[in-house]
Design goal:
By secondary structure, the chain is an alpha+beta fold. The protein has 2 domains: about 5-105, no CATH class; about 110-245, no CATH class. The chain is about 50% helix and about 10% strand. It is elongated.
Length: about 250
């Protein structure tokens, strides 16, 4: 699927699946099994998906039926209309599966990183947050691409601002000439909706060459992430919570 797809059904699977498969099947799974799994996942969140798919299929067949009656070749046009109807139903499934996948991610820690995992090229995102508020569990993730550095905050508007600003200043001290874009993920004023996040990041205008991006990435890896206790569930594939830190020791 395009910008989003059923692999986003949980932050736990998102990073792993961004390099492997769609949903739970492996890349060797047959297409109809993947389609069925996508349908099942979508139906859990959007029970009306079947009726939308049937509407697309039947509506397309009706159009071809009318053409067949006018052309006096009913059987031919119905056969021609069947693959177009199935295509329409599949497109409906893809769109609603994307919407359902993002709705399942909403509100989960690390949801923005999972969404950004759908960006295939041009950006490099760390597997752990670069800043964490251990009390509120607000997070900041960092990405590097040709537009420069992007800092993405998860948390209520007005509360995550301080965390983002602190990380922006920290990054600026290391790379003062590199453009830094700050984004907040959420449904509040001035925030970017989760489902729009990958598209928003990809639309940023390039400001660096590929060689400069490589150098910035190297410097950012050296800078590392803030060593604060990471909330459990941010990225279980790689991140590990500092249990002593979480107990206040």
């Amino acid at each position: 699927m395009a910008d989003g797809d059923p692999r986003l059904d949980s932050p736990t699977m998102a990073r792993k699946n961004s390099d492997a498969s769609v949903g739970t099947p492996t890349s060797k799974s047959r297409w109809y099994r993947q389609l069925w799994l996508a349908y099942r996942m979508t139906r859990e969140v959007d029970p009306a998906v079947l009726w939308w798919m049937l509407t697309a299929l039947v509506g397309t067949l009706v159009v071809f039926l009318v053409i067949g009656v006018v052309a006096k070749s009913l059987a031919f046009w119905l056969i021609m209309g069947l693959p177009f109807g199935l295509l329409g139903a599949t497109i409906i499934l893809a769109r609603r599966a994307e919407k359902a996948a993002y709705s399942r991610l909403e509100g989960q820690p690390g949801a923005s990183l999972a969404a950004l995992g759908t960006i295939r090229r041009g950006w490099e995102f760390g597997d752990e947050p670069v800043a964490v508020d251990p009390r509120t569990k607000d997070l900041v993730f960092r990405g590097v691409g040709r537009p420069g550095i992007v800092l993405i905050g998860e948390g209520p508007a007005g509360r995550v601002d301080k965390l983002l600003e602190s990380e922006r200043k920290r990054t600026t001290r290391v790379l003062p000439t590199v453009p830094i874009v700050v984004l907040q993920v959420g449904n509040g004023a001035g925030q970017v909706e989760l489902r729009s996040l990958p598209r928003t990041v990809q639309k940023l205008k390039p400001a660096l060459t590929k060689q400069e991006v490589a150098e910035v990435s190297k410097r950012m890896r050296a800078l590392g992430a803030t060593r604060l206790p990471v909330p459990k569930g941010v990225d279980p594939m790689r991140a590990r919570p500092d249990r002593k830190g979480m107990r206040g020791r």
